[in-house]
Amino acid sequence: MAHRVVVTGWGVLSSIGHDAKTYWQNLTQGVCGIAPARTIPTELLAQNIVAEVKDYDPLKHFDDRGAAPMDRVAQFGVIAAREAIAHSGLKFDGGLSEQTACIIGCGVGGQSTQDENYKRLYADKAKRLHPLTIPKLMVNAPASQISMTCGLRGPAFVVASACASATHAIGLAFQMVRSGGVPVAVTGGAEACIAFGTMKGWEALRVLAPDTCRPFSRDRKGLVIGEGAAAIVIESLEHAQKRSANILGEIVGFGMSADAGDLLAPDAGGMLRAISGALSDGGLNAADVQYVNAHGTGTAANDETETEALKRAFGVHAGKLVMSSNKSMIGHALGAAGALELVATLMTVRDGVVPPTINYLGPDPACDIDCVPNEARRMTVDAALSNSFAFGGLNAVLAVKKFS
To answer: Which of the following is catalytic: 163, 193, 213, 367?
Structure first.
């Protein structure tokens, strides 16, 4: 038996808000979280524009003992998961903790811990490192720390597929609930990779924007690295209704594919297969969808290729389709991007407000789908997609609907 899968809670920590409500307010108002880096040394960086979680103080969320075993990335994940669980009203007692999955996306793990310890080892010639170095930097730490902090004793693991990590994680959690494997899952993504060494690596790829992120715009110059976390609580409809939960939206489909082509260059065919897979899995026709939360990185190749894939997937309906890119405000949070963007997509469906694509300078003829430039738009959205397309040609797309 296939179960309907509904969303009953969400939590967010981002460059434009430390909770879901503030995040949504700032998204719809076009607030930009992109600014010069504050948390890392920048004198040796050629490009120091990032989307950091600003004014973050771990001691507002953890005591000294609680924060010490966790890198910034795990702290972010725990904060978002706590908010999502509180929002859902779930209590993990009576055996529910053993039936709740914790599936989290994370692209690279504890980069601050790794960076700090490499400096101590190679520059400072330290003889020994902190005994918790490995548990802090391991990529599965966010799922482990969320499960321990929140008392989740069911299946728990991290999915790592670069920029598609969170969307893959949420998609797998969705499939587990839909199939009846578990009645409840806490799922999402976390990333905190704004570390000096990591940023030098991104510089070497020559894909970073020197000023800001301008998805689908003429004169766009690249992406901006972001960070943060988002989590959602999903349940079978029966489980949610039995406890009279407040249902925020419904996940109906999941599609994924691999390009099996170039390591870095996006492929419209691979994107198309994931988009079409999500539509088919969700029982949606092209005309049923009003909005796409685009991957929209702001690089020349990605935005053009994503537009092509959407036009191929939606055909004549692409002329009526609306899309926007949250990355114009929150940067590219890599392994957390899909979770931050899915929460925004669910909020769009719930409230009938499409967040804008800000920093837009004018149309690019190769990106000719309406991208809601610079100002939010009120419109009815009954069904929407959230796209994630990763380096290595790994594609994942989620389909959501207004609950009825």
So the answer is: 163
How does pLDDT run across 292-313, given as a tens digit for each residue?
Answer: 999 999 999 999 999 999 999 9
Same domain assignment for residues 205 and 352: no
pLDDT at 94: 83
Task: Decide which of 217, 242, 267 is a domain's last residue.
Answer: 242
Q: Is the pLDDT of residue 81 over 90?
A: yes
- Report how far residue 108's alpha carbon sits from residue 138's, in angstroms, rounded to the nearest whole number: 8
Look at residue 76 and tell me whether its pLDDT is greater than 90: yes
pTM for this prediction:
0.98
The CATH number of whichever domain residue 192 belongs to comes to 3.40.47.10
> Which of 159, 123, 124, 167 shows the shortest CA–CA distance to 142?
159
Percent of the chain with pLDDT over 70: 100
| Interaxial angle between packed helices 111-118 and 72-88, expressed in degrees from 0 to 180 and rounded to the nearest 10 | 160
Count, residues in the chain? 404
Amino acid 181 reads: G
Residue 402 located in a structural domain:
no
Region of 181 please: left (phi>0), alpha (psi -120 to 50) or beta. Answer: alpha
SS (H, E, C) 284-303: CCHHHCCEEECCCCCCHHHH
Task: Return the SS3 of 390.
Answer: strand
Residue 163 annotated to the active site? yes
Q: Catalytic one among 168, 213, 295, 367?
A: 295
Round to whole Å and give the CA distance between 19 and 11: 6
Joined together, the tokens standing for residue 257 give 């594919």
- Catalytic status, residue 332: yes
Q: Which domain holds residue 93?
A: 5-242
Active-site residue (options: 18, 87, 239, 332) = 332
Question: Would you call 168 a catalytic residue per the annotation?
Answer: no
Exposed e or buried b for every residue in 175-194, given b needs 16+ CB within 10 A? bbbbeeebbbbbbbbbbbbb
> Cβ of 312: how many Cβ atoms within 10 Å?
15
Q: Which of 193, 223, 242 is the last residue of a domain?
A: 242
Dump pLDDT digits (tens) for 110-164: 999 999 999 999 999 999 999 999 999 999 999 999 999 999 999 999 999 999 9
